[in-house]
# Entry
Amino acid sequence: MMGLIAKLSTAMGGSRDVIASKDEAKQRLKVVLIHDQINLTPAQMQAMKDEILGVIGRYCEIVADEEIRFQLDRLDSSVVLHTSVPVRGMPHRAR
# Structure
């Protein structure tokens, strides 16, 4: 669908940059609204991230700090936290 909109916009003299900017603005607004709904201050959100990374770090080595992602999304009437943390050296579980 976005491909069709992009083609139509380009054919009408628009640019793909405008569409990308619009999509980025929509995503930013979505994040702001979700953060507002869960009622966490930026400091509380950072503290939560630090605690989660601390727990993961006790069990394995975290690599590539710039690739760590925390994202809040809406799912029906709740908010879901998605994380992506690149790790190395996860120990094998004893059986």
Notes: The chain has three helices and four strands.
